[in-house]
Amino acid sequence: MIEFVHPALLFILGAVPIPFLRGAARKVYLLLIPVLALLAVLALQPGSYGAAQFLGQDVLVAKVDKLSIVFATVFTILALIGMVYALHLTEAGQHVAAFVYVGSALGVVFAGDYLTLYLFWEGMAFASAYLVFAQGGEKAIRAAFRYLMVHVTGGVVLLGGIVLHALASGSLLFGPIEGNIGAGAYLILAGFLLNAAVPPLNAWLTDAYPEATVTGAVFMSAFTTKTAVYVLARAFPGTELLVWLGTAMALYGVIYAVLENDCRRLLAYHIVSQVGYMVAGVGIGTELAVNGATSHAFAHILYKALLFMGAGAVIYVTGRRKLTELGGLYRTMPLTVALYMIGAFAISAFPFFSGFVTKSMVVAAAGEDHRALVMLALTMASSGTFLHTGLKLPYYMFFGTDRGLEAREPPGNMLAAMAMAATLCVAIGIFPGPLYALLPYPVDFEPYTGAHVTESLGVLMFTALGFVLFLKALDPENTISIDTDWFYRKGARAFMWFAERPLARYEKAVSDVSETTALPLLHGSARAGLRVDLNGIDAIVNGVAHAILDGGGVLRRLQTGVVTHYALAMIAGLIAAIAVFAVVWR
Amino acid sequence: MIKCIVDLFGDEAYARYRHRLFYLVLVLIVVADFVVPRAHVEYLWERLPGWSAVYGFVSCVLLIFVSKFLGHQGGLMRREDYYD
Fold it and tell me: Which domain of life is it from (chain B) (predicted)?
């Protein structure tokens, strides 16, 4: 009997054979691995596995406890659902990337030390970036490069934090950071907050997710931000800063969602909003709050994936993504509408849907901790959540003005995946017991009290009244919204301007000098050189020229713009960096 | 079955029926909020029946108009070719 199978290895090693399988065999294989991983996670026993020494430091490949098991369970469930949704794809690339992405996320969740965590953290960034690159087209490629650059920068910050923290504390083991938070811990926190999409570090998410492939966005909606919630819950529970950041981001997301015209970008802003509840829960740090954050992450992954699958189905069928261009699809896509709405009710926390039994835990924890303002702000954000994902988006996407679009239901596998997620959203809402039993602390919380039900319904249905009365004010507009990505998108332009104007002018001035004074001198020496040249250096020059020509060819091949080449170069660079790091560490 | 339910929410033919149902639900919720027992009350507003309805409505209106104000007057909303 094998004591411990690391689920991350199942996915990462399991990705290797995918390109070599064809047809039905590949489909079976794509589903088999997530099922095996789910079984492996369910069979996990709390404990520490894979302890070793690396460069004189203690590393721990897998530390299993209740917190990591909750996240691993929902990650593997979503891997299975996402694979069903992506089953119709013929090219292997996205499947491989998704496997590596899921595997890396699981690696982070079980990481017992910072080095292991960091490696999988970077793996996630690269694998997920591929899901944006795979969409193709200039917009997506540009967004993917921005996504990658932001995450690589975040990774460097995290690595710097890890090194400083390890030097200060003398240990690389990953656990709660207590006492005085030093510079290292702040850098680690910044790296984590970036992946959790906490404003102002949120723009990468809303920039890249809507540009990803239809199937890729489903995976992306689940893993990156929720692994960040996990590491925050592990390392920084009870950090006051997180309460306020989380509350602010819950509102930040819904405010931007009002302005948004792109259906998946609207949903992406709601990831920001929903992760705000989790970050706030982690920040409050009581048992109820951490339970709330964890269970909300669990429920969120399922309903958010369902919403992304619904919007993805519309994009897949119609090829359109802007609310101003959609409408009237309910006639041709009733099943998609119904399944999407289950996700919308779940995210809005309607009674008998999953959000109700999880989100209320975070809000109740804020109340119990005497944080009235947080409680009110989070309730206001719930109103906004229903307003957008439950009312505005479905209204303009499925109902509203009939644009006469040719549409049909998406392929069966997509519907099946949505049905799986929808079933879980309802099941968790009606029977929260099994989920509560998974949570890290014992649960003493009853979501279904009369007052709680009427209160929630009051907030939600009167939000609907506001929507009905002010529908005209919500009409989507053909605009994009400026977020914090403005700084690096416009900043990069300023940098390019600097490179093209002042720098180019300086270069021209230098070349002018060389033309007026240096050139005559050179002419003279050239004539002298010519004689030498004619007498035998020709051969050498020719040789050098050929070498340069060949070198240019190699360079040209490097600059193909083919993404995989760049990705390969980056991975090689990463390995080199780790090697250098390892040597310096010694 | 599902198609019928979805049509109920989409077809113009059911518009009146839909509105009546909606307002009936609103009234029922407020009434229920008055009669429901409140065992554990910590904050002032939790004591007020119908508070959640008012708060939900005000939140919704605030979110719509504050966001649109920020978008239009605050300059957050830009033409689609802003970054091109």
Answer: Bacteria
